[in-house]
Design goal:
It is a single chain. This protein has about 475 residues and is α/β, with parallel strands linked by helices. The chain is built from 15 helices and 23 strands.
Length: about 475
Amino acid sequence: MHYHLIGICGTAMGSLAGMLQARGHRVAGSDENVYPPMSTMLAELGIEVMRGYKPEHLTPAPDCVVVGNALSRGNAEVEETLNRKLHYRSQAEVVKEEFIRGRRSLVVAGTHGKTTTTSIATWVMEVAGLNPSFLVGGVVQNFGKSFRVTESDYFIIEGDEYDTAYFDKGAKFMHYLPEVAVVNNIEFDHADIYANLDAVKLAFRRFMNLVPANGRLVAGWDDANVRDVVGAMGSRLHTQLETFGTCDDAKWQARDVDFSGELTRFRVLREGKEWGEFEMPLIGEFNVRNTLAVVVAADAWNVERAAIREALATFKSVQRRMQVKGAASGVTVIDDFAHHPTAVRETLQALRAKYKQGRLVAVFEPRSATSRLAVFQKEYVAAFGSADYVVVATVFDREKGSIYGRLLNTDELVAEINHAGTRAFCLDGADAIVAHLAPELRPGDTVAVMSNGGFGGLHDKLLGALRTRDGEAQAHHKN
């Protein structure tokens, strides 16, 4: 078939393009924003990317037009598709029909930890010999890619609760036919499409209702909202429930967690009985929970404990998840995708536990639809509690953010953080932040840069400024 993807450079759309090509289809697409890393990946695959949205891009007519969820009515190619009555689908629909239907599907959902948990699962199932196909919202470093297509019966996918397309406002994960569904946690997020927490809970309840009787629902029992949703379903939950967490009433429990060594170690209990001991390179209690969810899912697919143990010890994490971007002048610069206050808090707590020497400097960009809004202003004050020094960028794309509600007041936020006893500043953009921070940083400091976007290349600019500062200091010393 000939597929044309409108918005092909989005993370999910670009990965779908590569998957369709791997299946032997002819694939092309268009986008206004053509930039790395997705543009580079598509170029390496030899997939044609047309710049801009133009009706002529749909001539000759493709067999199927895939409409990205960032597109809406008024887009030139969307209008051409409708006027000519071309066959069109969403990205999630195509994934379901081309890659999941008829296979055994593991879907990882939840407000936080989806990408990491899905990545761990792909590596565990790979080491176990299941040879899974997968689609993840980040680069899985054990594979060096975000997707893979195999001929096996197993498919692993990150289940996003964001909406599917302009013509399908339901969550993407409703299309993924879960045999095993993981729900790590549930919080209010995506304020651009969900009115409140109850609306988010409803979406997850509908997702849980898709799991068949011979499948598993793997539920994060440390999370009160997950408990509420499962409890509200009652007898309408027609599948096998597996609860996990650090709490005493979870069926699967992580115990004796030890972060003191190079690897994190913990024991797993099942119904109060010893089940296994594991170690992994990830830090933070939230990653212990993410990993425990995978242990439960792997057991549902009869994976041997020895394979789970080997996979966890050799897991290489995910790009943009507490990823060390580099070090200069004795300063370590970390890149992380955190943007929701819970993710910010847990990321900083984990980094504080690992990097005990020197200061922990938090640099945050309010960029996601929810983080641009004032809805979590008080929560952000507490979220930065583990940091010694905080820099908050001004709200990204203020005009777009304001259509969803009152914007986050970054001046008020830094004032409240200062009042709580931590030095905090609000600065406008990456260049201003680098100019402010570079002279302030000293050997032993760790800088955690948190954004769900590129943040104006701040990581590399900061490392460059530190190296320049070092060079100038050495030249001055020689003179």
